[in-house]
Specification:
α3 runs parallel beside α4 and α4 packs antiparallel against α11. The protein contains twelve helices and ten strands. The termini are far apart. By secondary structure, it is an alpha/beta fold.
Length: about 250
């Protein structure tokens, strides 16, 4: 994870293009740490992006294949890594902007959903691909997606794992706007200029009020999510999905 502050903006860039910016526990911890110390008196915004052809392809499947955990160990890891990223993103007093150039799937999609703004290049694709490896959406996906796209659309994404293009992602509310790929940086810069003119600390208060009034607290949602994910890691479907991915074929679930 590359962290760079410039002109009152913190740029957080996934820098593992060789694995399509896949998440590992270490990457999640680095991202959470970078989101944990945001000061609205010094920063106007945070921009999330990815190097190469993907924003983030989600979890590192090869790391999953090598992992041996008890449900308790899986719970602790999910809640303190991916869950911590979602927690800091949702409580951040500084607005977070996702700049999506390429695929955002699995935890990548969940991170986009946790951001306050999201803009996508027209070639970007999105998918809640967890089900393809026998898992439950994490990094806050079960908390944020239903609130963004609606209950049935969220279930369709989570239960089928299908990819949607940038235009459909805009229609669903996953992103604010889709633009030509070569105009994405300019569109994000326009937003950053607008945010720079606003009182960041007050934006943070407005964000807190909006989130607190959504109903069930996201803390409760993240606890439940981490618990269910720890159970999913121990299923045959997860093992089947990981094996199929590593062998380059579609999984056949019993």
């Amino acid at each position: 994870m590359h962290v760079h502050d410039a002109d009152a903006v913190r740029y957080l860039t996934f820098d593992r293009p060789d694995v399509r910016n896949a998440f590992t526990a270490e990457v999640a911890r680095e991202l959470a740490d970078a989101l944990a110390d945001l000061d609205p008196t010094e920063l106007d915004a945070v921009v999330l992006a990815g190097e190469g052809e993907a924003f983030s392809a989600g979890g590192d499947i090869e790391a999953m294949a090598e992992r041996e955990e008890t449900p308790k160990e899986a719970y602790d890891r999910v809640r303190t890594t991916l869950g911590r990223v979602a927690e800091w993103a949702l409580r951040s007093p500084v607005p977070i902007v996702a700049s999506v150039d390429g695929d955002a799937v699995g935890a990548g999609l969940s991170l986009v959903a946790a951001a306050d703004f999201a803009y996508a290049g027209e070639s970007a694709r999105f998918g809640a691909s967890f089900v393809n490896v026998g898992l439950v959406p994490d990094l806050g996906g079960t908390v944020t997606l239903p609130r963004l796209v609606g209950l049935r659309e969220a279930k369709e994404l989570a239960f089928t794992g299908r990819l949607v293009d940038a235009a459909e992602a805009e229609r669903l509310g996953i992103v604010n706007e889709t633009v030509p790929d070569d105009e994405l940086d300019d569109r994000v810069d326009d937003l950053l200029e607008t945010l720079a003119a606003q009182p960041t600390e007050n934006i943070g208060l407005a964000k807190r009020a909006i989130h607190d009034n959504l109903g069930r607290s996201w803390r409760d949602g993240l606890e439940r999510e981490a618990h269910l994910q720890s159970l999913a890691y121990g299923t045959d479907a997860h093992e089947t999905g990981v094996e199929a991915f590593l062998e380059g074929r579609s999984p056949t679930f019993e």
